[in-house]
């Protein structure tokens, strides 16, 4: 568990300050859903609030970092902070883990203060785990706080969502992200490369920084190009499958999921708005590939073009639903055949706009 100091992320400051004020005013909810795109620091902000709530002498800047509670949090050993995550990448939170949470909230605080539980990838639960969590949410305990961290809040059951307050982390502006990345890279910072990484990550600075460090941007861009080519009939499902097979199935599906969502947004925007997002202003479109995509689907007649874009946008939404369904199957305990899932998605992609 990497307890990165979220107070150092400038785009999280307002959310952190809001949670701190709620706590000081005795208005902190017993359960929150922390949502937002991947790479914004949702897990970090949950762990930082946990450190703040259990700190003996918190300051206006956050946890003091020196007391025994802060030292325990720094090593992920605080008895009043429970962190639960899937046991393996691509797996779901189990009902046994949620039962452990249920037992945890019924135990008194070791330090006499707050108790905090953080559930990473909270949307990846089967029905048994969801039902067990619901029972815990229905019986809140004083000074006990739950933070459900998820990239996809909509996948949580409606009853769970209704019992939690929703916090959606904002995607920072291009300028804020670049300033933070520049601080992290120092003299080695390449602004144009950083901008390319931010576009490929959908504006998520932590994911963009990962791309800078592991040099994965070319592979992501190659997959994006192949997906767009298959979607627009310029390539075959077999070629897309070959590109997808170069990554882990979960990683590949998550990337084409985000790409499909962006395609759908572009289609459902007006022509002018969509073209604006293709610029270097930090808008929706992450690369020049998107202007090519727009050009391929646009028609000269404005009225007919609007109807066509609406039709294709709806088809892309249906494709998104199918990819999301495949993603959930990969996270399920049934061990589906990932190759067959990818083959099916490639065929659906090739037919989506026809």
Topology:
Elements: H1 13-24, E1 31-35, H2 42-54, H3 68-74, E2 81-84, H4 95-105, E3 115-119, H5 127-137, E4 144-149, H6 158-162, E5 165-168, H7 174-185, H8 191-200, H9 205-214, H10 217-231, H11 237-244, H12 249-268, H13 271-276, H14 289-297, H15 302-331, H16 338-351
Parallel strand pairs: 1-4, 1-5, 2-3, 3-4
Biggest β-sheet strands, sense, barrel: 5 strands, parallel
Q: How many helical elements?
A: 16
* Proportion in helices: 40-55%
Distance, first to last CA? 46 Å
User: What is the class of the largest domain in the CATH system?
Assistant: Alpha Beta
Number of domains: 3
* CATH architecture tag of the largest domain: 3-Layer(aba) Sandwich
Strand content: 5-15%
The low-pLDDT segments are 274-286
Shape: globular
Mean pLDDT: 83
Helix/strand class = alpha/beta
Task: Give the strand order, joined by hyphens, for the main sheet.
Answer: 2-3-4-1-5
The CATH H-level superfamily of the largest domain is P-loop containing nucleotide triphosphate hydrolases
Report the strand count. 5
According to CATH, what is the topology of the largest domain?
A: Rossmann fold
Strand/helix succession:
HEHHEHEHEHEHHHHHHHHHH
């Amino acid at each position: 568990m990497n307890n990165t100091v979220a107070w150092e992320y400038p785009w999280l400051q307002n959310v952190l300050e809001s949670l701190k004020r709620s706590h000081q005013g005795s208005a902190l909810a017993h359960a929150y859903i922390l949502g937002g795109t991947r790479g914004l620091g949702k897990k970090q902000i949950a762990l930082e609030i946990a450190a703040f709530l259990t700190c003996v002498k918190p300051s206006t800047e956050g946890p003091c970092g020196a007391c025994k509670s802060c030292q325990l949090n720094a090593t992920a050993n605080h008895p009043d902070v429970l962190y639960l995550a899937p046991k393996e990448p691509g797996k779901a939170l189990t009902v046994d883990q949620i039962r452990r949470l249920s037992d945890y909230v019924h135990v008194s605080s070791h330090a006499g203060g707050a108790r905090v539980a953080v559930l990473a990838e909270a949307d990846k639960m089967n029905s048994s785990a969801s039902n067990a969590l619901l029972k815990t949410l229905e019986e809140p305990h004083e000074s006990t706080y739950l933070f459900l961290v998820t990239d996809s809040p909509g996948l949580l059951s409606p009853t769970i969502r209704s019992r939690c307050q929703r916090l959606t982390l904002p995607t920072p502006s291009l300028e804020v992200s670049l300033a933070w990345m520049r601080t992290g890279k120092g003299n080695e910072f390449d602004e144009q490369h950083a901008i390319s990484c931010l576009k490929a990550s959908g504006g998520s600075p932590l994911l963009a920084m990962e791309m800078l460090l592991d040099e994965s941007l070319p592979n992501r861009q190659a997959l994006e190009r192949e997906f767009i080519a298959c979607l627009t009939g310029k390539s075959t499902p077999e070629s897309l499958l070959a590109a997808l097979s170069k990554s882990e199935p979960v990683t590949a599906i998550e990337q084409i999921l985000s790409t499909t969502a962006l395609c759908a947004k572009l289609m459902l925007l007006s022509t002018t708005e969509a073209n604006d997002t293709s610029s270097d202003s930090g808008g929706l479109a992450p690369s020049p590939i998107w202007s090519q995509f727009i050009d391929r689907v646009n028609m000269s007649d404005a009225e007919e073009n609007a109807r066509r874009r609406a039709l294709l946008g709806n088809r892309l939404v249906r494709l998104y639903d199918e990819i999301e369904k495949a993603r959930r199957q990969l996270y399920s305990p049934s061990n589906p055949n990932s190759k067959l899932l990818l083959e099916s998605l490639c065929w659906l992609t090739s037919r989506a706009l026809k």
